[in-house]
Design goal:
By secondary structure, this protein is an alpha+beta fold. Helix content is 32%, strand content 22%.
Length: 180
């Protein structure tokens, strides 16, 4: 359920695998709950790619050529999605590795069918444990202020160091979906 929840919040191009998140030139998807400028009790929610952070401002790309600068003092809550939850991958791997045992038990279908199925129990236990651990954890999400400082988001921005001088923020676009 956690994996499905994350996929609904994060657009497909930004739902990186763990390997992609380490080498992607794009920033991670970020959702901010911000205090409105009029100090009203209700705030706004802004989502987009984290472009850059300086001492007191986050820059989010929320649409084509639309970069919003948000003062960090206005941020009530922030969630940064580093990579896609891997519970589905563990489920697929466990299912595939148990398939020979299931097929073998049907082929034998005699007194040894149970023994062939029993050979898959260790793999099933390990696989199910990994599915539960990964599915119930949110290690792939950084949350401010509950677990992380806002400064810890900086390495996951498109420009984690200083903002390059030759970059025009109005020319940036969101990552496009890959068409197969």
């Amino acid at each position: 359920m956690t994996a499905c929840h994350t996929m609904m919040l994060v657009p497909g191009p930004y739902n990186f695998t763990l390997k992609q998140s380490k080498v992607s030139p794009y920033g991670c998807w970020t959702i901010l709950d911000i205090q409105s400028e009029k100090k009203e009790p209700t705030g706004n929610q802004i989502a987009g790619e984290l472009i850059y952070m300086d001492a007191d401002t986050l820059y989010l790309l929320t649409g084509d050529r639309n970069v919003q600068a948000i003062n960090s003092k206005r941020i009530k809550k922030a969630e940064l999605y580093i990579y896609k939850n891997q519970a589905g991958t563990y489920f697929a791997f466990t299912s595939i590795t148990l398939l020979p045992n299931i097929i073998g038990s049907f082929i034998v279908a005699g007194e040894f069918a149970g023994d062939i199925l029993a050979l898959g129990i260790p793999m099933a236990v390990v696989g199910i444990a990994h599915i539960i651990i990964e599915g119930s954890s949110d290690r792939n999400i950084m949350v401010y202020p509950e677990r992380n400082k806002l400064e810890s988001f900086k390495p996951f921005a498109r420009f984690p160091g200083d903002m390059p001088m030759n970059v025009d923020l109005k020319e940036l676009t969101l990552k496009k979906p890959v068409m197969n």
